[in-house]
C-alpha cells in the first residue's frame, strides 16, 4: 500500500462499525467515531506513512504531531527520527520549523526523543533549544550516562543541562498549584462499594489498554455514567469530582483509576498531544479507601482527598482550599475538611512517578557536578536514631540500605522480583514504553504470567495474539514469560522469590509467604522494573499472634474469614486498612500454602502488605523441597531467558544453605495487636455476599441454598482438592461444580493421584490451570445462583452478573455440594470427620 492508502485505511477504520462480539456484548457495534471515542493512536506503519506525506500534507503533519503514542515504541522512534531531520534542516516541512521540531520532541516526554535531543547538544544551531527542552524532562534513564560523557568531554551544553537538572528546573518550570479549585460533585451512593471491579469491570479486561473505550463501556454502570455526563454538561467550566464512602478496594488494577481520569480528569500540559489521556482527577474518599488505588491516583497525577463524604451529595458545587485543607460550599461555608494533607509538590510535578524520576535525576546530576543547590520542593531528612523495629520494617530497612526505618518514613527499597499478569500486563507495557519510556529491566527477575486469559473457551485469536505480544515484549527485555495453561502468577511467584526480599506485583494478591510483597498498579510495577527500586512510605504494622491448634474440621480458610470478624468486634473498624499485617505463630508451624492463604487474604483486608515471621530453618526446608525443584523444572522446560532463572536458582540455593530469618525487636511498635487462640474458632466462618468483610458463622447460614461450587484460585493448594474429593467420594453432587487447579505442576500431581479423574467422573468440570471464575473476565456463572467458592473475592458482579458468592473452605464447600445447602454445624463436623 502507498502512504496515502495507509492513511485512508486508518481513517476508514475509525468510521467502520465494529463486529458484534457475543463474548463481550457490552462493546457494542458502533464505529469509534459514532461511539464518541477518539481515533486510535497510529501504528508504526501508519506513522511512517504520515511522516512520508507530512512535508507537504498538513493533515498528515497533524497526525504525526498529535496521534503518535509517546515513549519507547517503534512508532515513537519513527516520529523522533522525523523531528530530528526537521531540527537538523535535513528536510523542510510546511508549518513546522526547526525550532518547532525541537519543541515537539520535548512533548514526547521520554524514550526515543531523548536520544535525539541529546545528540542535538553537539550542534551549536540546536544545542541551546535542546538544553531548554531536556531541562524540563525527567524520563532520561540510561541516557543520563551519555550526557555525563559529553560533559566530561568538555561539551558546555551538557554541563548547562546537568546544572539545570541539579537545580530541579524540571520542577520549578511547572506552574504552581492554584490556591483553590472548584468542582461539581458526583456522589456514588453509600450502598455501593466502589471497588476497582466497579470502576473497571473485569469482563472488560480485553479493552483496558484502550482507555477511552474501557472508560465508556466498563466504568460504574450505564445509568450512573449518564448521570455523570449530564452533570458535566450542566457545569462545563468546572471539572466533576467523584465522591464515595468506600472506594478503590479490591484489585490493584490501574484501569480503575484510568477510567476515573478519563471520565472526570482534565487536559493540561501533561496530556498535550496525547488524545487518549486525561489527568488531575479529584476523588473524595470516605470511610474506606483502597491503599493501592490511592497510590495509583497519586502516581498518575490525580488526587484522592480523604474526608467526610456524608457532607457531599451529587450536584454540590464545592471549592477545595488546598493549603487550608478545607472544602466549602457555594456560600463559602466549610462543609468538610481533609483527614490528611495533600502533597502539593507531587501534584505540581505531574504525579508521583514523574516526581520520583525527577528527584532521582536531580540527585544524580548534583552528584556528578559535586554541587548541592537549594531545591524547590520539600525534602525529607530521615531520623536514623536506633529504635526497635518490627520484622517487616527490618526487611524494608535492609532493602533500602538503611540501619533503621520508622512508620511514615519514605524510603527507596531495592526490588528483587517483579510480577505481572496478563490483564494488567498490557498496561504495564504501556507504562514501560509510554509513561516511563524504558528499554531495559533493572530487576533480577521479572515474571509474566498468562493466567487471567487462560480459559479455553475465550482463547480467541485476538486474546491469543495479545498475550503472545505481551510475552514476546517481556522476553525482549530479559524477563521470564509463563505460557497459557501454566497457571496462576501468585502460585508460581511463591516458589520463585528469595525470602525476606522486597517483591512487587501488578495484582492485589501479590502477597508471597516468604518475602515482603507490595501490590502496585501498572505504573508502579513498570517503575520498579525500569529502575530496580520502589518508593515505600513505611506503613504502620498490625500484629496478629496465632497460638494453640485448630479443632478438627477447622481450617486456615476459616481463620482467614474469622480475623476480620474478630477485629470488627474488637475495634469497630477495619484496623488492617493500609497496614502491614504481621503474623506470629506460637505452636506447630503452618504448611506454606496455609501461610500464603493468610498473607494472600491481606488483599481483602485492604492491607498494604503482609509478613509472616517464620523459622529460617523451616523456610530453608521449603526452598529445598519445593522452590528449588520448581525452578529447576522451569529451566529444563526452556523457560530461562538470559540466565535470569539460573541466577535465581543460585540465589535460592545460597539462601537455603545460610538461612537468615527476621523477627521483631522487643518493644517494636504496632498500631494494633490481635491474639487468636485457634481453638476459639468453634465452627466454620463464611464471608457472605457481597464483600469479604461480611463474615458470619456457619450457624447463621444453615439451610441457605447452594447452587454452584468453584474450587480453585491462588487461595487453593493440592490438599484442598484432595479434601474436596475425599468428602464427596461415594456421594452424589447436587450442585454444579467447577475446578481450576492453580498450576500445571499441581495439576500433574493431582492427575497422577487420580484425584482429578475421580472428580471428573462425578461430573466436575475441570478448567485449565488459571484464574477462571475467580477473575470473572472470561468464564462467568450464569443466572441468579448462590455460589460457594474457595477463591478470593465475592463482590457483586465479579463471578456473574446475578451471582451471590460465599467464600468458604474446600471442606465446607464439599459438604454443601452433596446436600445442596449450607449444613448446620453438627452436620458439618460429622461430614468432615466421617469422610
Structure description:
- By secondary structure, the chain is of the alpha/beta class.
- It folds into 5 domains: 170 residues, Aconitate B, HEAT-like domain (Serine Threonine Protein Phosphatase 5, Tetratricopeptide repeat); 158 residues, Aconitase, domain 4, CATH 3.20.19; 154 residues, Aconitase, domain 3 (2-Layer Sandwich); 139 residues, Aconitase, Domain 2 (3-Layer(aba) Sandwich); 150 residues, Aconitase, domain 3.
- It contains 31 helices and 25 strands.
- The strands form 6 sheets. It has a 7-stranded mixed sheet with strand order 4-3-2-1-5-6-7, with helices on one face. The protein has a 5-stranded parallel sheet with strand order 11-10-9-12-13, sandwiched between helices.
- Helix 23 links the parallel strand 15 and strand 16.
Amino acid at each position: 500500500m502507498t502512504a496515502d492508502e495507509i492513511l485512508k485505511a486508518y481513517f476508514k477504520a475509525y468510521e467502520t462499525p465494529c463486529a458484534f462480539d457475543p463474548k463481550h456484548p457490552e462493546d457494542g457495534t458502533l464505529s469509534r467515531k459514532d461511539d464518541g471515542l477518539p481515533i486510535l493512536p497510529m501504528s508504526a506503519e501508519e506513522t511512517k506513512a504520515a511522516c512520508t506525506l507530512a512535508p507537504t500534507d498538513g493533515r498528515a503533519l497533524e497526525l504525526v504531531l498529535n496521534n503518535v503514542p509517546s515513549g519507547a515504541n517503534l512508532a515513537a522512534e519513527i516520529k523522533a527520527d522525523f523531528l530530528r531531520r526537521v531540527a537538523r534542516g535535513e528536510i523542510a516541512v510546511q508549518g513546522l520549523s526547526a525550532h518547532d521540531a525541537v519543541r515537539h520532541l520535548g512533548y514526547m516526554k521520554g524514550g526515543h526523543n531523548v536520544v535525539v535531543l541529546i545528540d542535538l547538544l553537539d550542534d551549536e544551531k540546536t544545542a541551546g533549544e535542546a538544553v531548554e527542552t531536556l531541562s524540563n524532562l525527567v524520563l532520561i534513564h540510561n541516557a543520563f550516562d551519555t550526557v555525563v560523557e559529553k560533559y566530561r568531554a568538555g561539551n558546555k551544553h551538557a554541563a548547562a543541562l546537568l546544572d539545570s537538572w541539579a537545580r530541579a528546573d524540571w520542577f520549578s518550570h511547572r506552574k504552581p498549584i492554584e490556591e483553590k479549585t472548584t468542582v461539581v460533585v458526583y456522589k456514588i451512593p453509600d450502598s455501593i462499594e466502589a471497588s476497582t471491579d466497579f470502576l473497571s469491570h473485569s469482563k472488560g479486561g480485553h479493552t483496558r489498554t484502550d482507555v477511552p473505550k474501557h472508560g465508556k463501556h466498563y466504568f460504574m454502570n450505564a445509568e450512573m455514567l449518564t448521570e455523570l455526563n449530564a452533570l458535566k454538561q450542566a457545569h462545563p467550566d468546572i471539572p466533576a469530582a467523584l465522591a464515595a464512602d468506600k472506594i478503590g478496594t479490591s484489585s490493584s488494577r490501574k484501569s480503575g483509576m484510568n477510567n476515573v481520569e478519563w471520565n472526570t480528569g482534565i487536559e493540561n500540559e501533561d496530556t498535550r498531544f496525547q488524545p487518549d489521556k486525561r489527568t488531575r482527577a479529584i476523588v473524595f474518599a470516605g470511610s474506606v479507601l483502597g491503599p493501592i488505588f490511592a497510590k495509583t491516583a497519586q502516581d498518575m497525577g490525580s488526587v484522592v482527598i480523604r474526608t467526610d463524604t456524608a457532607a457531599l451529595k451529587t450536584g454540590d458545587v464545592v471549592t477545595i482550599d488546598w493549603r487550608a485543607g478545607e472544602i466549602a460550599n457555594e456560600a463559602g461555608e466549610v462543609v468538610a475538611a481533609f483527614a490528611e494533607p495533600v502533597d502539593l509538590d507531587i501534584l505540581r510535578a505531574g504525579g508521583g512517578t514523574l516526581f520520583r524520576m525527577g528527584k532521582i535525576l536531580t540527585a544524580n546530576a548534583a552528584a556528578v557536578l559535586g554541587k548541592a543547590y537549594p531545591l524547590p520542593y520539600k525534602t525529607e531528612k530521615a531520623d536514623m536514631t536506633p529504635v526497635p523495629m518490627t520484622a517487616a520494617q527490618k526487611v524494608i530497612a535492609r532493602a533500602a540500605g538503611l540501619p533503621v526505618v520508622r512508620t511514615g518514613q519514605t524510603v527507596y527499597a531495592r526490588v528483587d522480583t517483579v510480577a505481572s499478569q496478563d490483564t494488567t500486563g498490557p498496561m504495564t507495557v504501556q507504562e514501560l514504553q509510554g509513561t516511563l519510556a524504558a528499554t531495559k529491566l533493572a530487576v533480577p527477575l521479572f515474571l509474566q504470567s498468562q493466567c487471567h486469559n487462560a480459559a479455553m473457551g475465550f482463547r480467541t485469536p485476538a486474546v491469543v495474539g495479545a498475550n503472545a505480544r505481551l510475552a514476546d515484549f517481556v522476553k525482549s527485555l530479559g524477563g521470564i514469560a509463563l505460557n497459557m495453561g501454566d497457571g496462576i502468577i501468585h502460585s508460581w511467584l511463591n516458589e520463585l522469590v528469595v525470602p525476606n526480599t522486597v517483591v512487587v506485583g501488578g495484582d492485589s494478591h501479590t502477597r508471597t509467604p516468604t518475602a515482603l510483597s507490595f501490590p502496585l498498579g501498572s505504573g508502579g510495577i513498570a517503575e520498579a522494573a525500569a529502575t530496580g527500586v520502589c518508593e515505600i512510605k513505611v506503613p504502620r504494622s498490625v500484629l496478629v499472634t496465632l497460638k494453640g491448634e485448630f479443632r478438627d474440621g477447622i481450617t486456615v480458610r476459616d481463620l482467614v474469614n474469622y480475623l476480620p470478624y474478630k477485629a470488627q468486634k474488637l475495634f469497630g473498624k477495619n484496623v488492617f486498612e493500609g497496614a502491614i499485617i504481621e503474623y506470629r505463630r506460637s505452636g506447630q508451624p503452618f504448611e506454606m500454602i496455609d501461610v500464603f492463604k493468610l498473607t494472600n487474604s491481606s488483599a481483602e483486608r485492604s492491607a498494604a502488605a503482609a509478613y509472616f515471621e517464620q523459622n529460617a530453618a523451616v523456610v530453608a526446608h521449603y526452598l529445598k523441597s519445593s522452590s528449588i525443584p520448581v525452578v529447576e523444572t522451569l529451566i529444563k522446560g526452556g523457560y530461562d531467558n538470559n540466565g535470569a532463572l539460573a541466577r535465581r536458582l543460585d540465589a535460592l540455593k545460597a539462601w537455603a544453605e545460610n538461612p537468615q530469618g527476621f523477627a521483631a525487636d522487643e518493644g517494636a511498635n504496632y498500631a494494633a495487636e490481635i491474639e487468636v487462640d485457634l481453638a476459639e474458632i468453634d465452627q466454620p466462618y463464611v464471608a457472605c455476599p457481597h464483600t469479604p468483610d461480611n463474615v458470619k458463622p456457619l450457624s447463621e447460614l444453615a439451610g441457605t441454598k447452594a447452587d454452584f461450587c468453584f474450587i480453585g484460585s491462588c487461595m487453593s493448594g493440592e490438599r484442598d482438592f484432595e479434601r474436596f474429593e475425599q468428602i464427596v467420594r461415594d456421594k452424589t453432587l447436587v450442585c454444579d461444580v467447577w475446578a481450576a487447579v492453580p498450576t500445571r505442576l499441581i495439576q500433574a500431581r493431582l492427575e497422577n493421584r487420580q484425584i482429578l479423574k475421580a472428580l471428573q467422573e462425578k461430573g466436575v468440570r475441570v478448567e485449565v490451570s488459571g484464574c477462571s471464575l475467580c477473575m470473572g473476565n472470561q468464564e462467568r456463572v450464569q443466572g441468579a445462583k448462590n455460589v460457594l467458592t474457595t477463591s478470593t473475592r465475592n463482590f457483586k458482579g465479579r463471578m456473574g452478573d446475578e451471582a451471590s458468592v460465599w467464600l468458604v473452605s474446600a471442606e465446607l464447600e464439599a459438604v454443601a455440594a452433596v446436600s445442596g445447602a449450607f449444613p448446620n454445624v453438627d452436620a458439618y463436623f460429622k461430614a468432615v470427620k466421617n469422610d
